[in-house]
Design brief:
- The structure is a single chain.
- The protein is α/β, with parallel strands linked by helices.
- It has 3 domains: 145 residues, Rossmann fold (3-Layer(aba) Sandwich); 72 residues, no CATH class; 213 residues, Rossmann fold (3-Layer(aba) Sandwich), CATH 3.40.50.
- The protein is 31% helix and 18% strand.
- The strands form 3 sheets. A 6-stranded mixed β-sheet has the order 3-4-2-1-5-6.
- The radius of gyration is 26 Å and the shape is globular.
Length: 462
């Protein structure tokens, strides 16, 4: 049975979220009402991501409509990479009052969108008219008036966040699988070769808990047809392996430090709730490799500036001074690292202050708003609160990395503050899934809290 043709009415929230949304609806027709164009016009000023997306969406609309120099009543053809007929773009005018949905009055742009959707549903009985918006309340209003409404889900990576790749698995061997020393290239930590059916479920860069197979914890370095080469991880739990005075307190933290300290890993993602040690471990690894090993010239740290409560308004000062109020976690963790490092070496208060100044001198706090066009050479780049970034923003940031740089993304997808992102559409979820299995990337989900017994209990009980 052939599926019914669908007519999609796009809200401005969709186009400012993804300017290329016009081209995501395959063979179906897309309607962008004039009220939406006015909304884009109101958002296009400034240097914010929303303003840039609004301008880009306007350019895409202009390019598409330029293919039809005459009357737009028949619509403009939309590019379609798949098979079958391509959809068309329409710019419907503002509906008359008689076309507005019956029921409670809805004013503003939302009312215009509901009116267009109702008119399309009445005029095209053989099609489904659907309002697509990121505005939850507008979707509720549409359904209350008997209209179809959907969220824009083109960037959804998974149907359920529980299916997200964790980066860790049990080394469970199937009957007939064999394990032995690697034929060649065995390092100081030991390498193993596994042959059999179990290999099919693994990914390069994945950590394997080897207890059930009587092996140490390992990381998958290479996978071939029916075989895999594993390498034992460095044990950062030991005192002699401490990184800037920090030792791993559990297996997950040990795996995280293995990724952070590995010069062959260019991209790391760490997920976990508050208190699991994401920022502390990352800063410790960054300082160790920047100051002691001189692998990187400096640490670049940035984050999305979305307030948890009410916005306190504009902040004075330079770019770095404006970002300082958002970097409380950075200061807290630097204090911990400074106290631990100087205490272990038995240094005085003066030496502790000097060490703190040295650490801060190697850290640069940057705003996301000024990242476009930059190229970072030999930098240790930390993107904090990355769950609040869209897939497009994440791509913009990661592609700033030049030769010799490392990018580390930290976040907790259960604490998304952006109004238009969910656990399944977050840019952090997106990159975890897309970089899965890349030989120069790695991911670990930290489960166990190490901040305090109070914080750990609050995480589970509240």
């Amino acid at each position: 049975m052939t599926a019914r043709r669908r007519l999609f009415v796009l809200d401005a929230t969709v186009l400012t979220h993804d300017p290329a949304a016009l081209y995501r609806f395959e063979e179906h027709d897309v309607y962008v009402p004039i009220a939406v164009l006015e909304e884009l016009d109101a958002h296009k000023q400034g240097a914010s991501e929303t303003a840039r997306n609004a301008r880009q969406a306007s350019r895409f609309l202009d390019e598409t409509l330029a293919a039809v120099p005459g009357d737009l009543a028949a619509g403009a053809p939309l590019p379609h990479a798949g098979r079958g007929a391509a959809g068309r773009l329409f710019i419907p005018s503002t509906p008359a009052d008689r076309d507005r949905p019956r029921g409670p009055a809805v004013r503003g742009v939302g009312g215009e969108l509901l009116a267009v959707t109702r008119r399309l549903a009445d005029e095209h009985k053989d099609c489904e008219a659907v309002l697509v918006t990121k505005d939850i309340n507008l979707r509720i209003k549409a359904r209350a008036l008997g209209l179809q409404a959907e969220d824009y889900t083109s960037e959804r990576v998974l149907d359920d966040a529980d299916l997200l790749y964790r980066g860790i698995a049990e080394l469970q061997l199937a009957p007939g699988d064999t394990v032995g020393p690697a034929a060649a290239g065995a390092g100081a930590r030991g390498t193993f070769e596994v042959r059999g059916a179990a290999v099919a479920a693994w990914h390069v860069g994945q950590f394997l808990l080897g207890g059930q197979a009587s092996l140490p914890d390992t990381v998958v370095r290479e996978i071939g047809p029916g075989w895999a080469r594993l390498e034992a991880v460095v044990d950062y739990v030991k005192e002699e392996q401490a990184v800037w005075g920090v030792r791993a307190r559990n297996r997950e933290q040990n795996f995280a430090l293995n990724l952070l300290m590995d010069p062959d890993i260019d991209f790391v993602t760490l997920l976990g709730h508050a208190g699991t040690g994401k920022t502390l471990l990352t800063l410790a690894a960054g300082l160790e490799q920047t100051i002691e090993q001189r692998r990187y010239t400096e640490i670049i740290m940035t984050r999305v500036t979305i307030p948890v409560g009410e916005d306190i308004g504009f902040l004075p000062g330079t770019e770095e001074e404006k970002m300082n109020p958002w970097m409380g976690a950075l200061e807290d963790n630097l204090d911990i690292l400074n106290q631990g490092e100087t205490r272990d070496r038995g240094q005085s208060r003066w030496a502790r202050a000097a060490a703190g100044d040295l650490m801060r001198a190697r850290i640069r706090v940057k705003s996301l708003n000024f990242m476009r066009g930059r190229t970072f050479l030999r930098k240790f780049i930390i993107i904090d609160e990355a769950q609040n970034l869209s897939a497009h923003q994440m791509k913009t940031l990661i592609t700033r990395a030049g030769p010799g740089s490392k990018v580390v993304c930290l976040g907790n997808i259960a604490q998304i503050d952006s109004p238009y992102l969910t656990e399944t559409t977050s840019g952090l979820t997106y990159v975890v899934d897309r970089f899965k299995g890349w030989a120069h990337g790695g991911h670990v989900t930290l489960e166990r809290g190490e901040r305090s017994r109070l914080a750990d209990y609050a995480t589970n009980a509240l």
